[in-house]
Specification:
The complex is a heterodimer of chains A (489) and B (487). By secondary structure, chain A is of the alpha+beta class. Chain A folds into 3 domains: 225 residues, no CATH class; 95 residues, no CATH class; 60 residues, Arc Repressor Mutant, subunit A. Helices cover 39% and strands 20% of the residues of chain A. In chain A, the strands form 4 sheets. A 9-stranded mixed sheet of chain A has the order 2-6-7-10-1-11-12-13-14. Chain A has a 3-stranded antiparallel sheet with strand order 5-4-15, with no helix packed on it. A two-stranded antiparallel ribbon of chain A has the order 3-16. Chain A is elongated and about 100 Å long. The N and C termini of chain A lie far apart (82 Å). The N terminus of chain A is likely disordered. Chain B is an alpha/beta fold and 487 residues long. Chain B has a domain of 266 residues: Alpha-Beta Complex (Amidase signature (AS) enzymes). Helices cover 39% and strands 13% of the residues of chain B. Chain B has an 11-stranded mixed sheet with strand order 1-3-2-4-6-5-10-11-9-7-8, sandwiched between helices. In chain B, β7, α8 and β8 form a beta-alpha-beta unit. The two termini of chain B are 17 Å apart. The model of chain B has no long low-confidence stretch (mean pLDDT 95). The chains are: A alpha+beta (489), B alpha/beta (487). At the A-B interface, loops of A face α9 of B.
Chain lengths: 489, 487
C-alpha cells in the first residue's frame, strides 16, 4: 500500500461497502467428525488423538452421523434447503497442522444451500442471504517454543467438526455485519449446534469486503481477512478495511485481490498473500467416504428438535413479561442470558424490574469482568428474591445495589445477606426519632437555616439521618418525623 | 513329509489330527526363509521370535483340545503395505523405512483371530506402484522359477513367497492387478475381491477407490478359506460391506455345467504372447468339455481402461501420499532451512522415481485447469467401463481372459520403456475400475517353462461363481501341483 497523507480532500464520491462473511463454527458433538476421539477443548497436547487424527497411513475416516444432524439443524434454523445428495471432498495444501495434507470438506455439493436471516438495524429490516453451509474438519495447531528452539504441533483439534457458513455479499455496513453475526451466533447457541465460545476459537469469521461508488452495479475488488475471533474485532476490521480501500481508491490506487491479516492490537490489517500465489487446492471427491443422502424423514426428525429461536422468544418476552422491545432483543440475543431472565421473571411479580436489573447491573458486571452469562455466580431465583425484597419494602433500592454486589461476589441468597448484614429498612419510629434528635442537636446551623426558610437545609438533614442509619431508615418515615421534630423547635 | 509343500487347508487338517505341531510347521517355514530369502528377496522383515511365540500359543490351544479357528497354526506372510502393530510397515519405501504402526490392519487382526501365524512382511513395489517389483527401496524380488526374471508386481514378494514355499499363503494388495499379475508370473492363485469385500483399514492407501487387500494362495480352496477369514464389513472402513457370501468354501464344488463363460475378443488380440493366448483358449476348451457354454463377447472399451486407470490412480495417489511430509513419522531429511525446504528434501529423498512420477501426474490431472479434461473424463470412462461389464453380465456369468499379455519377463527388460511396463496391467485394470472380482489361476506353461495365468472375472459380489469355476478347472487339470519352483 502506498503512503497516505494524514489529511485528505473532501471526496466527491460516496462509497458503499459490500461485505460477505464466511463463518466457521465448531459443532458441539462429543466426538470428532471422522473418529471417536473427544472434541473437548484443551488437554495436554496430542492426548485427544488416535492414529487417524495424526494422519497415520492406512487409517480411514468414518463419518460421525451426529455431525450431519447438527449441520442439518443449523441449516433448518437459518432457512436453508437441505441437499438430498451431498459429497465430501479433499482440499489439498501442505501445512504441518494439517495431518493428512488435505482437509476433508465439501466443495461442489454442500449439505445446505440458499438460506437467509432477517436482521434489523436502526429500525430497518433487512434480509441477508446464506449461500451455503457445509461440514468439514478442523486442523491442529502449531505451538511456537517461547525460547525460539522450534515449533511443535498439537493435533488435539485435528478432526473437530466444523460447519462453514457462507453468506451472500449482502451487508453494507459494520452495523449490519454485527447484527447478522450476533443473530447467527444466537441461533447456533439456541439450537446447541455450537457452544460459540469465541475466545476458544469455537466461532470465527472471515470477512470478504469490497467498496464501490454508490450506485455502481459491479462489485469492487475484494479482500479477505481471516480468523476474526471477537465481535469487536469483526466490527473494527470492517471499519478499518472499508476506510483503507476507500483511501486507496481516492488516491488513485487499485485494490488487490488478496488475503489480509487483522492485527487486533494495532487495529489494522496487513497483506498476507496476493492472488498470484493463491493455492490450487486440487479438490477431489474423497474416495474413502460415500456421498451423504438425506431423506425427508431425516430432515423432519431434526426439525422436530429445533427449539424456540431468538425472534420468537423476543416476541414472547414482550407479550408475556411486558418488557420493552429493546430489552427483549438484547436479552434474547444470548440464550443463556434469556434462560436466566426467564427463570427469574416467571416467578416474579415484577418482570419489568427483573429486566431492568439484567439490562443494567448484571450486563455491567458481565462487561466489566468479561465473563459469559453462563458464569453468573448466583441463581435466577436469587434475582427474583432481590426484586421482591425491594418491592416489599424490606430493603431500599440503594441498599439493593449493595446486596447485588455481594450476591455477585459470593453467590449468596439476598435474604441471607440482608439478614446477616442487618440491611433491613428501619421502620421503628422511636429508633428513627432518636437519631433525628441527635442530628438536630449536632447541626444547629442547618436547623436555623431551615427555620429561616431555606428548604435546602431539609435535604442536608435527611442525608445526615440516612448516613447515621447507614441508609436503612425508611425514607418516608424519616421525612415525616424530621418535619415533626423541626416544627417542635 | 515336506511340511512346506502342503496347502493351508491340508496343513490345518493335519495339525488338527496332530500329525505335526504348529511350532514344527512354523520352524519349517522359517528354515525355508533362512535358506531362500537372501536369493529371492521376498521378505523385508522376518518375525522369527513373534512367529515362534504365536505358534506356541496356538499349539497350547490344540493340546488343550480347544475349539480351533479355520487357519489355526498356518504360517502366512503379509505385504509390507498392510499395517502390523509393532512391526515395520515400510511399503517398500525409504519414506516409511522407520515406520512402525501402533495398530493392526483389520485383515491382519482377523487372520490372527483365525489362528494364522505371521512369518513376516513381504517386499513389494514402492507404495504398490509397479508391475515388476523393481521399484522397492529394499531391492528387487526375484521370480522363484527363474532368478533372472521379475515376479510381477506390485505384490511380488507375496507371490514369490507363496510360490517358493516361504509362506503357506500371503496377503497382498490389488489396485490395478498387482496380486493377479504377480500370481500369474509365479504360478500361484491370486484373488482380487470385489471392492468393499475386505476392509481397507490398515492398508496403506495408494488409490483408495480401487485398493483391495487380496489373498495369494497355493490353490483355490485356500483362497476361499483365507477369504472366509478376512472378508466382511468393518466399522472402521465405510466402503466395506457384507454381502451374503460369508462362507466362500461353500463354492468349492466341481460343477460348471451350463455356466455361461464369455471370451471378450479384445483381450485376445494385439500385443499378446502367442502361448499365453493358446493356454487360455485351451482352458476355455476344458470348461466347454466340462459342460460350460463358451460365448465370444466384445468389450471394446478395453483400450481406454489403462489411461483412465493411470489418471485416476495417480490422482488419488498424489492425494494419499501428500501426508508423508517428514513432520509426524517416517523419513525426514537431515538438514533443511525452512518448512518448504523440509518438505522438498524429505519428499525428494524419501520417494523413489516411479512414485514421484505418479505424484506429479496426479497433481497435474487434479489441477484447476486440467481437472475436467483429465480427471473428470477418466471418471466418465470408469463409469462407461462399469456399464459395459454390466451389459456383458446380462449374457454371461463369468468372463475368461488372460491375466497378463505375457509370462514373466526379464529383470530390467521393461524399465526403459514405461508404456511397455504399464501394458502388463492392461487385462487387470478394468476389473479394478469396474469394482468387479477376479481370480488368477495357473493354466499351463510357455515354452520356457514359465507359468501362464488366466483370469476369471465375476460380477460384483459374485466371488462364489469364479471360485467354483476356478475350483472345477483346478480339480480337472490337477492345478499347479507340478511346480516345484525350480529350487
Amino acid at each position: 500500500m502506498k503512503s497516505i497523507p494524514g489529511e485528505m480532500e473532501e471526496s466527491t464520491v460516496e462509497y458503499e461497502v459490500v461485505v460477505g462473511l464466511e463463518i466457521h463454527a465448531e459443532l458441539a458433538t462429543k466426538s470428532k467428525i471422522y473418529c471417536g476421539c473427544t472434541t473437548e477443548f484443551g488437554g495436554e497436547p496430542n492426548t485427544h488423538c488416535c492414529p487417524g487424527c495424526i494422519g497415520m497411513p492406512g487409517t480411514l475416516p468414518v463419518l460421525n452421523k451426529a455431525v450431519v444432524d447438527y449441520a442439518i439443524k443449523a441449516g433448518l434454523a437459518t432457512n436453508c434447503e437441505i441437499s438430498s445428495f451431498s459429497r465430501q471432498d479433499r482440499k489439498h495444501y501442505f501445512y504441518p497442522d494439517l495431518a493428512k495434507a488435505y482437509q476433508i470438506s465439501q466443495c461442489d455439493y454442500p449439505l445446505c444451500r440458499n438460506g437467509y436471516l432477517d436482521i434489523e438495524v436502526d429500525g430497518e429490516k433487512k434480509r441477508i442471504g446464506i449461500t451455503r453451509i457445509h461440514i468439514e474438519e478442523d486442523a491442529g495447531k502449531l505451538i511456537h517454543d517461547e525460547s525460539g528452539n522450534g515449533t511443535y504441533v498439537d493435533y488435539n483439534r485435528s478432526g473437530v467438526p466444523l460447519i462453514e457458513i457462507v453468506t451472500e455479499p449482502d451487508m453494507r455496513s459494520s452495523a449490519e455485519v454485527k447484527a447478522f453475526f450476533e443473530k447467527l451466533k444466537a441461533i447456533l447457541e439456541y439450537t446447541a449446534v455450537s457452544d460459540c465460545k469465541m475466545q476458544e476459537g469455537s466461532l470465527r469469521a472471515d470477512i470478504n469486503l469490497s467498496v464501490r461508488p454508490k450506485g455502481q452495479k459491479e462489485f469492487g475488488v475484494r479482500t479477505e481477512m481471516k480468523n476474526l475471533n471477537s465481535i469487536r474485532a469483526i466490527v473494527r476490521a470492517v471499519e478499518f478495511e472499508a476506510k483503507r480501500q476507500i483511501l486507496e481508491l481516492e488516491y488513485g490506487g487499485v485494490i488487490e485481490r488478496e488475503t489480509r491479516r487483522w492485527d487486533d492490537v494495532k487495529g489494522e490489517s496487513y497483506s498476507m498473500r496476493t492472488k498470484e500465489d493463491a493455492t490450487d487446492y486440487r479438490y477431489m471427491p474423497d474416495p474413502d467416504l460415500y456421498p451423504i443422502y438425506v431423506d425427508q424423514a431425516w430432515i423432519e426428525q431434526i426439525r422436530a428438535t429445533i427449539p424456540e429461536l431468538p425472534d420468537d422468544r423476543k416476541k414472547r418476552f414482550i407479550s408475556e413479561f411486558g418488557i420493552p422491545e429493546y430489552d427483549a432483543s438484547i436479552i434474547t440475543a444470548s440464550k443463556t442470558l434469556a434462560d436466566f431472565f426467564e427463570a427469574a421473571a416467571k416467578d416474579s411479580k415484577n418482570a419489568k424490574a427483573i429486566s431492568n436489573w439484567v439490562m443494567g447491573d448484571l450486563m455491567k458486571k458481565l462487561n466489566d469482568t468479561g465473563l459469559e452469562p453462563s458464569d453468573i455466580p448466583f441463581t435466577p431465583g436469587n434475582l427474583t428474591k432481590l426484586v421482591s425484597l425491594i418491592d416489599e419494602n424490606v430493603i431500599s433500592g440503594k441498599i439493593a445495589k449493595q446486596v447485588f454486589d455481594i450476591m455477585w461476589d459470593t453467590g449468596e441468597d439476598p435474604a441471607d445477606i440482608v439478614e446477616k448484614k442487618g440491611l433491613k429498612v428501619v421502620t421503628d419510629t422511636e429508633a428513627i426519632r432518636s437519631v433525628i434528635i441527635k442530628v438536630i442537636t449536632a447541626n444547629p446551623k442547618s436547623v436555623e437555616d431551615y427555620k429561616s426558610g431555606k428548604t435546602k437545609a431539609m435535604g442536608f438533614l435527611i442525608g445526615q439521618v440516612m448516613r447515621e442509619t447507614k441508609g436503612k431508615a425508611d425514607p418516608q418515615a424519616v421525612n415525616r418525623l424530621l418535619k415533626e421534630e423541626l416544627d417542635k423547635i | 513329509m515336506e511340511l512346506t509343500k502342503l496347502t493351508a487347508c491340508k496343513a490345518a487338517d493335519k495339525i488338527r489330527k496332530k500329525e505335526f505341531s504348529v511350532p514344527e510347521l512354523t520352524q519349517a517355514y522359517l528354515d525355508r526363509i533362512g535358506e531362500l530369502n537372501e536369493k529371492i528377496g521376498a521378505y523385508i522383515t522376518v518375525c522369527k521370535q513373534d512367529a515362534g511365540k504365536q505358534a506356541d500359543n496356538i499349539q497350547k490351544k490344540i493340546d488343550n483340545n480347544g475349539e480351533l479357528p479355520l487357519l489355526a497354526g498356518i504360517p502366512a506372510g503379509i505385504s509390507d503395505n498392510i499395517c502390523t502393530s509393532g512391526v515395520l510397515t515400510s511399503c517398500g519405501s525409504r519414506m516409511l523405512s522407520n515406520f512402525v504402526p501402533p495398530y493392526d490392519a483389520t485383515a491382519v487382526k482377523k487372520l490372527s483371530q483365525n489362528g494364522a501365524v505371521m512369518l513376516g512382511k513381504l517386499n513389494m513395489d514402492e507404495f504398490a506402484m509397479g508391475s515388476s517389483n523393481e521399484t522397492s527401496w529394499y531391492g528387487q524380488v526375484k521370480n522363484p522359477l527363474d532368478y533372472g526374471r521379475v515376479p510381477g508386481g506390485s505384490s511380488g514378494g507375496a507371490a514369490a513367497a507363496v510360490a517358493s514355499q516361504m509362506a503357506c499363503f500371503a496377503l497382498g494388495s490389488d489396485t490395478g492387478g498387482s496380486v493377479r499379475l504377480a500370481s500369474s508370473f509365479c504360478g500361484v492363485v491370486g484373488l482380487k475381491p470385489t471392492y468393499g469385500a475386505v476392509s481397507r483399514y490398515g492398508l496403506v492407501a495408494f488409490a483408495s477407490s480401487m485398493d483391495q487387500i487380496a489373498p495369494v494362495t497355493r490353490d483355490v480352496a485356500d483362497c476361499a478359506a483365507v477369504m472366509n477369514s478376512i472378508a466382511g464389513h468393518d466399522p472402521l472402513d465405510s466402503t466395506s460391506r457384507d454381502y451374503g457370501h460369508e462362507d466362500y468354501t461353500l463354492s468349492l464344488k466341481s460343477d460348471v455345467k451350463g455356466l455361461k463363460i464369455g471370451l471378450p475378443k479384445e483381450y485376445f488380440s494385439g500385443g499378446i504372447q502367442k502361448e499365453v493366448k493358446e493356454k487360455v483358449l485351451d482352458a476355455a476348451k476344458v470348461f466347454e468339455s466340462l459342460g460350460a457354454e463358451i460365448e465370444e463377447i466384445s468389450l471394446p472399451l478395453l483400450e481406454y481402461a489403462l489411461p483412465a486407470y493411470y489418471i485416476i490412480s495417480s490422482a488419488e495417489a498424489s492425494s494419499n501420499l501428500a501426508q508423508y511430509d517428514g513432520i509426524k513419522y517416517g523419513y525426514r531429511t537431515r538438514q533443511f532451512e525452512d518448512l518448504v525446504d523440509l518438505y522438498k528434501k524429505t519428499r525428494g529423498e524419501g520417494f523413489g522415481e516411479e512414485v514421484k512420477r505418479r505424484i506429479l501426474v496426479g497433481t497435474y490431472v487434479l489441477g484447476a485447469g486440467n481437472y475436467d479434461a483429465c480427471y473428470n473424463k477418466a471418471l466418465k470412462v470408469k463409469r462407461m467401463i462399469f456399464e459395459e461389464y454390466q451389459n456383458a453380465y446380462q449374457k454371461v456369468e463369468v468372463i475368461l481372459v488372460p491375466t497378463a499379455p505375457s509370462t514373466a519377463f526379464k529383470i530390467g527388460e521393461k524399465t526403459a520403456d514405461l508404456l511397455d511396463m504399464y501394458l502388463n496391467d492392461v487385462y487387470t485394470v478394468p476389473v479394478n475400475l469396474a469394482g468387479l472380482c477376479a481370480i488368477s489361476v495357473p493354466c499351463g506353461f510357455d515354452s520356457s517353462g514359465l507359468p501362464v495365468g488366466m483370469q476369471l472375472i465375476g460380477k460384483p459380489y459374485d466371488e462364489g461363481t469364479i471360485l467354483r469355476a476356478a475350483f472345477t478347472y483346478e480339480k480337472y487339470t490337477g492345478g499347479n501341483g507340478g511346480i516345484d519352483c525350480g529350487i
